[in-house]
Task: inverse folding
């Protein structure tokens, strides 16, 4: 049991960042004390939050009651004695090391000795604050991104003396508040600003060297990186002096290459606030600009990985989640191609007197390896993690191939295995676009091949000598829920959710769902879940035995390990009776009535609103998909699991090649209601 358990938060500094961080914490259901210098500043910060919540209510992001509940979890004060019982404090005061040190000194006086103390500094090392803190093993960096109530990324940074348990607890607390944490070493700019600041600065250099005007640089940067704003517009939005300060601080601690370009220095000496973005675009300059911006990005990304500041995967996650780039630096590098990237970076390092990053000079010409799925071992347990938070860890062919190789490695390691996702999802399904593209190309065999591959891997999970545990901390939907039920055990956070929504999109769960689910929760409840697509929260999932344990975020890893060490669940048999009184009406209804009985209105819901809602949900599905699922339930019920899975695979073409399959899948991609050829209500 960790000595750090985080239930109550505090934020020091109710400015732009602090108010947003506190808002996010309260939005995710935790209490948070918000502290500033005096009552006026506190009121200002609370006012910022209130305004944002009001806007959220206007835009229907929150209901008025939700906004009130969020505010009720926030407590603004200038009285530091109110910090006595908080478990994690996040400092977000001015970026001045002396001010920060004095804040940490005060925190050491007022907080309990095992409260984790975190800094949101952008430009100092975390270690620079160690001397100000009593018990500095609980000091950590939590670097958020603007706007912190909306932007999910957070860099978690330890210093040399950080207690690994404090680090783990801080990490878990960020998952608990819906953030996507990435690891960063205590280094200048951490991971993301290390390449983002030079990216902006390269735009400035191109301008200063007269390569192109601002409008052209903006256009080319947006096109090359697929982003919404170029470097100059971004500086205008975040404040030009912030870019100047960030480049100055990287330049001072790393190399003159990172220092602000002369055009930025000159601009900051004027009274201008914003760069003028107007001007004619000269498209002939595209390559000259894109090549330079690629070179800077690739150089810094490779260099930071060489230095162990961050991993390839976290560097890309940082770009996708924190900067909203559609592709991370390493994915881009692979697209550009290693030989060309090497040539571009070679030109850059020659100009600036830098060394070529080793990982780039040694990179295989086919590309830098990006671990979409990673494997590590800690003590007695191996961990597989899906690393694609921006796609909610959706399963596609590349992901399955990497999962396959990690499963094989795991066999070599021969340890119990915990499988988890990153970001807000466990695994939120399969890659729908791949299905739609395949169908439009008349290439059903590629879909069948993908499904067969998924089934094979899930069967392997099921048949392992050691236990497999799904660490479900967020959404487990469709293929993700099917992966979870292929594991021996499922341990979930209170924020997890489970669902099998396939019949809403004209297909049925084809990665074992129609056969494993009845064997796990009993046939009637499996029918309910697959016919209605109802999403269950962790509490309900536990009630019906879909999952095995629910643990708070800070205990989730320990709980997974505990279940992993129990060994495989060889003795699990389908329940023959309803596992919970609350579920008895569902059990009885779906035991008794067929899809046709329910849809024709012949099934008697006995005025039970839950059952009426279930019937009405079914009426919006594809009738064809419902009937296929029903048939699979009936046919597969008495088979051994291997044969039952073959049966499921056999019928997949009936779903995918039916018009409702393409319509349902396309509608999901296009975020519209499907117009099924065979709607269930017909
Ligand atoms: N703005 C960004 O985009 C961004 C992004 C990541 C990190 N950061 C970092 O977050 C921190 C805060 O930045 P910001 O933009 O919110 O600044 P800000 O100026 O908007 O807010 C700072 C707040 O801290 C309060 N404060 C100052 N000294 C204090 C003290 N001794 N005790 C209590 N409160 C005190 C101020 O009254 C003010 O309300 C900085 O370290 C900054 O580098 C900023």
Result:
């Amino acid at each position: 049991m960790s000595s750090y358990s985080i239930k109550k938060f505090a934020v020091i500094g109710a400015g732009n960042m602090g108010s947003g961080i506190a808002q996010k914490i309260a939005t995710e259901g935790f209490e948070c004390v918000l502290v500033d210098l005096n009552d006026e500043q506190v009121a200002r910060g609370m006012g910022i939050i209130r305004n944002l919540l009001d806007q959220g209510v206007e835009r229907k992001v929150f209901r008025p009651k939700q906004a009130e509940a969020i505010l009720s979890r926030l407590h603004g004060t200038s009285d530091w004695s109110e910090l006595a019982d908080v478990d994690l404090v996040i400092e977000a005061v001015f970026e001045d090391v002396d001010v920060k040190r004095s804040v940490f000194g005060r925190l050491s006086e007022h907080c309990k000795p095992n409260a984790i103390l975190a800094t949101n500094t952008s430009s100092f090392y975390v270690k620079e604050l160690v001397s100000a803190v009593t018990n500095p093993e609980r000091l950590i960096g939590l670097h958020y991104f603007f706007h912190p109530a909306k932007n999910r990324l957070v860099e978690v940074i330890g210093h040399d003396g950080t207690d690994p348990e404090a680090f783990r607890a801080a990490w878990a607390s960020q998952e608990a508040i819906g953030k996507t944490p990435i690891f960063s070493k205590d280094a200048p700019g951490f991971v993301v600003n290390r390449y983002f600041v030079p990216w902006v600065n390269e735009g400035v250099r191109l301008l200063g060297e007269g390569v192109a005007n601002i409008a052209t640089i903006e256009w080319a940067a947006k096109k090359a990186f697929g982003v919404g704003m170029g470097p100059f517009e971004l500086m205008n939005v975040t404040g030009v002096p912030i870019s100047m300060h960030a480049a100055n601080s990287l330049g001072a601690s790393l190399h003159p290459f990172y220092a602000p370009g002369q055009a930025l220095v000159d601009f900051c000496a004027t009274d201008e606030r914003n760069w003028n973005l107007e001007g004619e675009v000269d498209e002939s300059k595209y390559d000259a600009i894109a090549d330079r911006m690629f070179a800077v990005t690739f150089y810094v990304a490779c260099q930071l990985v060489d230095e162990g500041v961050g991993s390839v995967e976290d560097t890309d996650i940082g770009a996708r989640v924190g900067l909203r780039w559609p592709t991370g630096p390493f994915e881009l590098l692979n697209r550009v191609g290693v030989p060309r990237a090497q040539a571009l970076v070679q030109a850059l390092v020659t100009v600036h007197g830098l060394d070529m990053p080793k990982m780039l000079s040694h990179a295989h010409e086919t590309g830098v390896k990006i671990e979409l799925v990673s494997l590590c071992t800690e003590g007695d347990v191996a961990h597989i993690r899906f690393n694609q938070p921006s796609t909610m860890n959706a399963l596609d062919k590349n992901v399955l191939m990497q999962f396959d190789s990690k499963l094989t490695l795991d066999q070599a390691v021969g340890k119990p295995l915990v499988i988890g996702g990153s970001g807000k999802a466990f695994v939120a399904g399969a890659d729908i676009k791949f299905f739609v593209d395949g169908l439009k190309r008349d290439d059903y065999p590629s879909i069948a091949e993908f499904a067969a591959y998924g089934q094979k891997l899930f069967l392997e999970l099921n048949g392992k000598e050691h236990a497999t545990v799904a660490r479900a901390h967020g959404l487990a939907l469709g293929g993700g829920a099917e992966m979870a039920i292929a594991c021996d055990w499922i341990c979930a956070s209170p924020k997890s959710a489970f669902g099998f929504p396939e019949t809403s999109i004209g297909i049925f769960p084809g990665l074992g769902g129609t056969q494993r689910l009845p064997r796990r929760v009993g046939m009637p409840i499996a029918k309910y879940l697959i016919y209605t697509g109802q999403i269950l929260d962790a509490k309900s999932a536990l009630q019906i035995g879909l999952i095995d344990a629910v643990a708070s975020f800070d205990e989730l890893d320990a709980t997974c390990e505990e279940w992993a060490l129990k060994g495989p669940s060889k003795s699990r048999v389908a329940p023959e009776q309803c596992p919970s009184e609350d579920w008895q009406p569902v059990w009885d209804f779906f035991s008794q009535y067929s899809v046709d009985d329910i849809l024709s209105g012949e099934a008697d819901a006995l005025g039970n609103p839950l059952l009426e809602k279930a019937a009405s949900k079914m009426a919006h599905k594809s009738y064809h998909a419902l009937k296929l699922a029903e048939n699979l339930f009936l046919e597969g019920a008495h088979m051994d699991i291997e044969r039952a899975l073959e049966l499921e695979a056999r019928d997949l073409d009936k779903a995918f090649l039916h018009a409702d399959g393409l319509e349902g899948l396309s509608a999901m991609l296009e975020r519209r209601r499907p117009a099924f050829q065979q709607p269930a209500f017909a």
The mean pLDDT is 95. Residues 373-669 form a domain with the 2-enoyl-CoA Hydratase; Chain A, domain 1 fold (CATH 3.90.226.10). The longest strand covers residues 139-144.
